[in-house]
Amino acid sequence: MNKTLPILIVEDDLRLSEALKTHLDYSFPQVSPMVARSVAEAHVFIYQYEFCAYLIDLVLPDGNGLEFVVDLQTVLPDARVLVMSGTPYEEIEAQLQQLGSVQFLQKPFDLQSLDEVLRSLLPETEAKPTFQGSLRQLRLVDLIQVKCLSHDSCKLHITGANGVHGVIVINGGSILHAETDNLSGIPAFNEMLSWTGGVFYEEEFRGGVEVNIEGRWEMVLMEAVRLSDECHALRAA
Hints:
By secondary structure, this protein is α/β, with parallel strands linked by helices. The protein has helices spanning 14-27, 39-46, 65-75, 89-98, 111-121, 140-149, 185-193, 217-236, and strands spanning 5-10, 31-36, 53-57, 59-60, 63-64, 81-85, 103-106, 132-134, 154-160, 165-171, 174-180, 198-203. It folds into 2 domains: 5-121, Rossmann fold; 133-236, no CATH class. 39% of the residues lie in helices and 25% in strands. A hairpin with a 4-residue loop joins strand 9 and strand 10.
């Protein structure tokens, strides 16, 4: 079944977020879960993707989950939200009621309870395909940074404004592979990071590609951004 229902999990506990992601992959094959481990990461995601539901922890390393829900509802008033917290409902009932229609699960919760809430949150009709967009709406560097910080795995297909096609593969937060119509490896990656327009879409990474990029993703990305800035400066001169 195609994964057509993107869900954002905002949870800084690595073991819990991975457990939730694994469970959703198995129990809800139509769902495509993505993980943000801070308020900052979550803010980047909500401006890049259209999620059908949000699973949000209350205690995050750089902010409060309830405050993030308020921000989310300002941008998306109809957002479907499940709040997760070890704090008993009675202690935060007044705050939750101010948020309007949100679901609540107290940690630790069993998977059956989670499944019941998710079934009430997920839309009954199939959502339109997501994980696609314009590079005029966001910078490719920001998208790659979020993917690496989230230890995500994906295959990004990019078409530049000049019609050149390219692919970037990220596996477990590491940049493994890049190629364009006429370049491969680091040169291809650097070339794509210099594009200022175009479109992209994402698909699940299933393996089977040549590893032609090595090293820490931070260093690879930093060098590509440096070269891109130099290239744009020369064009503007």
